[in-house]
Write a structure and sequence with these properties.
Blueprint lengths: L1 H12 L4 H6 L1 H55 L6 E2 L9 E2 L2 H10 L7 E6 L14 H12 L5 E7 L2 E11 L3 H9 L13 E10 L1 H51 L14 H32 L9 H15 L2 E9 L1 H8 L1 H18 L4 E4 L4 E6 L9 H22 L3 E3 L2 E3 L2 E9 L5 H17 L5 E3 L2 H22 L3 E10 L5 E11 L5 E2 L1 H11 L2 H21 L6 E6 L1 H5 L3 H12 L6 E6 L7 H13 L3 E7 L6 H4 L6 E4 L1 H4 L6 H16 L3 E4 L5 H9 L4 E2 L8 E2 H13 L1
Parallel strand pairs: 1-2, 12-13, 15-17, 17-18, 18-19, 19-20, 20-21, 21-22
Antiparallel strand pairs: 3-6, 4-5, 5-6, 7-9, 7-12, 8-9, 10-11, 14-15, 14-22, 14-23, 15-16
Helix pairs in contact: 3-4, 3-7, 7-8, 10-11, 11-12, 14-15, 16-18
Protein name: cyclic-guanylate-specific phosphodiesterase
GO molecular function, one term: cyclic-guanylate-specific phosphodiesterase activity
Pfam families: EAL, GGDEF, Tll0287-like
């Protein structure tokens, strides 16, 4: 039973549609009301009729008793004084007699007829002797038993007499007069002689005709039932109207709002409702829907901007990182390729940004065409990422992994070849250099680690002139860690003045006189450890530290050269190497001028050496900077000449003074005919351009003799002297001057 109750309770508490509350409860309650009227009204009407009959009977009984008492107390007492009148219940049989009070009461009761719609009967279980044969009927007997127990409560029932429904009311007939009590105690026919005031002697039975009242009451009940049915019908029609005008629009709005939450737009009409509030709600919703449409459009645009590249329409870096994280955590083994366009800024600067944008779009199209089954994104301005998860599984065999590696290698080569094919943009044939990094992801690696490894491989590919596709290996990280450590220590070395300039003399071959000295930087740690420039110069260039280091070396070289001249040594030029990073600085000319001004050195005793590869950039900008430096009065030399790719037309436009033959050609010049030919060619080129030529790396007399025979102008190398710190070089200068 309890479970049934809980089930019903749950059903009741479950949310229901508004239409249910409008169309179901009220008709149910109306039907229940009609049923109640049908069942309760007849009984209620009968009870009302009975109560009215009882009230009438009680009033009539009280009236009859009052008349009887008056008759007994005032009439009989006066008549009793006349001996000629007999007081008897047989007064009708005697001419000179009057009735006793009981008979008087009975005769008064019998005076009511059917026309009065009631009948009165007096009976008693204690009749006079002459009436001893009179017996009470069943109702009277039942009433007597009840009245003797509770004389203050009349007894009533419905009955049918001669086809009419009547109400029979039994009321106790009490002794309320002393005269009546005395009469009954003294009368010879009295059945008892011990009567007292208040005793119930008999019953006054009043029968009230209730037929008319019942008919009227039933007609009223029928009218009530009809009114209830009419009310129910009106209520149903009203509910239907309400449902149409209120519930239907609300349901339409609800459905539209649900669809709106699912980013769907559903048309809804609510303006035809007859209710102001519903119309206002509908208008408010339509306004909200329009606002939501605009919001969704803006949200879509924001999402497009947040997760897609506006130029290529590819997913952006944020989307790529999210996808990479999902795939790495779910699949375990996948491959990330990062494709970068090298020196893209040069395309923007030379051909314009509109060409650069079109180039990026074309690159994106070629990548997506080649990698249609993979996830392609624009990683940043010049980088694209490709996430390949084909055949990725956490439990791949070594054979499958090798196959994937081969597929990735083939794809990388295909990409490189495809992207290095010239692009036809507007009227230009655009050639691009491409670097590709490959990172194989395994064992649920974190995204930051994956990207870091990819960037390490990409950096290696960018800095390499031959290997433009680099697959990440742990060794690359080790090399990066070493470079990072080197840069950190290099910063400390600058502060501790551990970077020391060394000087290697340069001699004129024809006279044997010292004509210059090249400044070579050495790193000497506090413990005396010597770090080769071969290790720290590349780190300084990639980190940008070469700029402050180069400026400091330039200042020291100018100051020391001026100092040696002031000490009386014969003037000579001091050659300072300038890296490509330094030369690219806009402030290079100003910094050279400031170093000269600060030291007081005559500019003609300063030479700047720039590598051939550092000059392979914008020729007009290079010529401008070199010309500005020449205008300061200094000399300019191309260092490591012969290792680059300068053309004669390019070289003759440069305002330079000297060519320096790289030591790689001098080292084996005696045995190697190719090196001999190259040196001869450089010497002839210098002479034709009226440039001095200096050979580096001379280590023995045979090499010096060959260079002298070839009319080389100047030379430097271990044959003459090793690079020396400033104090040793000063001693070396004194030694030379003594000779």
């Amino acid at each position: 039973m309890k479970s049934i109750f809980n089930l019903l309770k749950q059903q009741y508490q479950r949310p229901k549609a508004l239409q249910w509350y409008i169309t179901v409860p009220l008709p149910i309650f109306s039907i229940l009301a009609i049923v109640v009227v049908l069942i309760v009204a007849p009984r209620l009407i009968e009870n009302l009729v009975k109560a009215n009959a009882v009230e009438t009977a009680v009033d009539m009984t009280q009236t009859l008793q009052k008349i009887r008492n008056y008759y007994a107390d005032n009439v009989l007492s006066e008549v009793g004084d006349h001996t000629g009148v007999e007081i008897t219940h047989l007064h009708k049989y005697t001419d000179n007699a009057i009735p006793i009070p009981a008979t008087f009461l009975m005769e008064m009761a019998q005076s009511y007829s059917a026309e009065d719609k009631l009948r009165v009967n007096v009976t008693s279980p204690y009749p006079f002797y002459s009436r001893k044969d009179r017996n009470m009927d069943e109702f009277q007997q039942s009433a007597w038993q009840k009245l003797t127990k509770n004389p203050d409560q009349p007894v009533s029932i419905f009955d049918e007499v001669e086809g009419h429904r009547v109400v029979k009311v039994a009321i106790p007939d009490k002794f309320t007069s002393n005269a009546c009590v005395d009469c009954h105690n003294l009368h010879q026919d009295s059945s008892r002689r011990d009567w007292q005031l208040g005793d119930v002697r008999g019953i006054i039975e009043i029968t009230v005709d209730a037929e008319l009242s019942l008919e009227r009451a039933h007609r009223l009940s029928l009218m009530m039932i009809i009114a209830s049915f009419v009310s129910l019908l009106v209520l149903v029609l009203f509910n239907r109207h309400l449902a149409k005008k209120v519930v239907t629009p609300l349901s339409s709005i609800t459905a539209a709002m649900t669809a709106l939450s699912e980013r769907k737009i559903v048309s809804t009409e609510t303006s035809h409702s007859g209710y102001k509030e519903v119309n206002e709600l509908g208008s408010a919703f339509l306004n909200f829907q329009r606002s939501e449409q605009k919001r969704q459009i803006l949200e879509s645009e924001v999402r497009q901007l947040a997760f897609f590249d506006p130029l290529t329409n590819l997913p952006n870096r944020s989307s790529a990182l999210t996808r990479l994280s999902e795939l790495a955590s779910r699949e375990g083994n996948l491959t990330l390729l990062i494709v970068k366009i090298d020196k893209f800024n040069e395309i923007n600067d030379t051909l314009g940004y509109h060409v650069g944008d079109k180039l990026l779009i074309e690159v994106a199209n070629r990548i997506t065409t080649l990698c249609s089954d993979d996830y392609v994104a624009r990683f940043n301005t010049t980088e694209f990422s490709i996430i390949s998860s084909k055949n990725s599984s956490a439990k791949q065999s070594s054979a499958s992994q090798s196959e994937n590696a081969l597929q990735t290698e083939a794809l990388s080569k295909h990409l490189l070849a495809c992207l290095q094919t010239p692009f036809a943009i507007d009227d230009h044939q655009v050639h691009v250099s491409i670097s590709i990094a490959v990172k194989h992801v395994k064992d649920n690696q974190q995204v930051n680690e994956i990207i870091a490894h990819g960037n390490i491989a990409l950096h290696q590919a960018e800095t390499s002139h031959t290997h433009k596709i680099v697959t990440y290996t742990p060794e690359l990280s080790d090399a990066l860690d070493q470079r990072v450590t080197m840069i950190k220590e290099l910063k400390q070395a600058i502060g501790k003045n551990e970077l020391v300039p060394y000087f290697q003399p340069q001699f004129e071959l024809s006279s044997g006189e010292l004509v210059g000295a090249e400044v070579l930087l050495r790193w000497i740690k506090a413990d005396g450890t010597l770090i080769s420039p071969f290790f720290f110069i590349p780190a300084a260039e990639t980190s940008g530290l070469i700029v402050p280091i180069g400026n400091k070396v330039l200042e020291q070289a100018c100051r020391l050269n001026k100092q040696w001249q002031d000490q009386g040594f014969k003037p000579f030029r001091i050659a300072v190497n300038v890296s490509g990073v330094q030369f690219e600085q806009e402030t290079i000319v100003r910094e050279v001028d400031e170093a000269l001004q600060a030291s007081g050195l005559d500019p003609k005793w300063l030479e700047l050496e720039v590598t051939e590869t550092a000059l392979m950039a914008d020729i007009s900008e290079i010529i401008t900077k070199l010309s500005q430096l020449r205008d300061l009065g200094i000399e300019l030399a191309i260092d490591d000449f012969g290792t680059g790719y300068s053309s004669l037309s390019y070289l003759k436009r440069l305002p330079i003074n000297r060519l320096k033959i790289d030591q790689s050609f001098v080292r084996n010049v005696i045995e190697n005919e190719d090196d001999q030919a190259i040196i001869e060619m450089i010497l002839n080129l210098g002479k034709s351009m009226k440039l001095k030529v200096l050979a580096e790396g001379v280590e023995d007399v045979a090499e010096e003799a060959f260079l002298t025979q070839m009319n080389c102008d100047e030379a430097q190398g271990y044959y003459y002297a090793k690079p020396m710190p400033a104090d040793e070089f000063e001693v070396y200068l004194e030694k030379i001057n003594r000779h």
